[in-house]
Amino acid sequence: MKALVLAGSCSQIVLLNQLRERNIETVLADNNPNAVAIPYADKFVRANILDEVAVKKIAIDENIDFLIAVCADQVLLTVAKVSEELGLPCYIDYDTACKVSDKGHMKDIFSKNEIPSSKHAFMSELDMEKIKGMEYPLVVKPVDAYSSKGVRKATNLDELKLYFDEASNISRSGVVIVEEFVEGAELTVDFEVVDGKAHLLSVSNTEKVNYKDRFLAFRTRFPASVSDATVKRVADIGQKIADAFNLVNTPMLVQLLTNDEKESVLEFCARTGGGAKYLLVKAASGFDPIKAVVDLTLGIPVEVKEIKPESKFITNEFLYAYPGTFDHLEGFDELKADGTIAEYWQFKWQGAEIVNAVTSSDRVASFTIYSDSYEELVEKHNRIAETIKIIDKNGEDIMRHDLLTDIKPLFL
Length: 412
Fold this sequence. Notes:
Blueprint: E1 2-6, H1 10-21, E2 25-30, E3 43-46, H2 52-61, E4 66-68, H3 73-86, H4 94-101, H5 103-112, E5 120-123, E6 138-142, E7 152-154, H6 157-170, E8 176-180, E9 185-194, E10 197-208, E11 217-222, H7 228-244, E12 250-258, E13 263-269, H8 277-285, H9 289-297, E14 313-319, E15 324-330, H10 332-337, E16 343-346, E17 353-354, E18 365-371, H11 374-387, E19 389-392
Parallel strand pairs: 1-2, 1-4, 2-3
Antiparallel strand pairs: 5-8, 6-7, 6-8, 9-10, 9-12, 10-11, 11-14, 12-13, 14-18, 15-17, 15-19, 16-18
Helix pairs in contact: 2-3, 3-4
């Protein structure tokens, strides 16, 4: 068999390795000639993976048996569309993929099915009548972007106009959502939907940089600091989403806000979590979400057994850098060898130009910690923070150490 894997990020490294273990030949497509997953594929083809025509041609030319992607909701559209046109297997049909990838459709379905979410309106031109009655701050986001690109918080009309234009230029369709900002702790919730039942795999806290107008995640921590009652409500919300979108067999990632009394869903997608989230979910539940995507694509039934965490405390830390030309990481291998770091990922390639630290696509690297106690978690984190470096071409450490903040207890 031969698989066409779309996107060459770290998560695809895990996917490519799992496909190799099944003796499946792999062709990797990505527009980045330096994508970190390239060495793990049997063949690499440079292509715009959001261009359905280009991807379809690759699939035909390479005589592909199936297309597959993990951790990327916009790429899921390409996989679903091309698979449908070529009669190849896919765990989700194109119509459903469109509904779960477009934040405008998503919010409408939330409203119709009483799934809690913020007041909102979506439009291609800023129409103040459509947002009449909404209160600042307002969040502006493209309906079809990813990696938090174009997501800004406006506190007044001038900012709203500026950020709206910005989001409109980023949106492929030109459509933008404007919604009320909701206070609360952000949770990332992973499910596996099997025969229509949404199985809760993990609930984790997402910590974000205290930017005035942006939302940049720097840490995800399991278990989430919420009550059992909140976990139960979150599980119920996941099932309502699966029912509302007619999801049958698929991974599902939900992002929401909570004050431990009520929730507001930000968005969701029918995919596994990106970056190092695979490790957190697997360690938090004992369930392998990437293996499940392969099984679903190949028509192999997926079963969610007892959810059993492999570690009491798990954290993913995302690393950013000051502007510069990336050369290499330092200190990571030693810390992984002695067990301080469970795993780490490098997202940028040697020679990559680092400009900002404002979206998740600006991440240079990440690492994961497992620990049996909160004290051990803090000890490991502090040792890592004192040791690791992101080195530029001049031999200087350009890591944003200020964004690798201390781990503190989370309370709502």
